[in-house]
Amino acid sequence: MKERLVKKEEIEKQLEEMVALLEQVDAKMEKVIHDVIEDRYSQHQKEIGRLEKRIAGIEQRLDGKKTDGRLPLSSTLYGV
């Protein structure tokens, strides 16, 4: 009977150690996931900024063509 009690205590101790290790792994995984999400968010924000600048440049070019009133060179060559 005493052997069973000792084994049970050893098993409980091992289970507690396993639970502690699993909690550590869980905490580290949460940090890794958080870091990846922050990194991707930062990358996407930079890409959005670049795209907004490109769109602004295109809009400026289009606005410039509208105010000019002339047809583009290709249109005048082909009589469009």
Automatic annotation (TrEMBL):
Coiled-coil annotated residue ranges, if any: 5-68
Protein's UniProt keywords contain Coiled coil: yes
Domain of life: Bacteria
Keywords assigned: Coiled coil
The protein's name: Uncharacterized protein
Native organism: Geobacillus icigianus
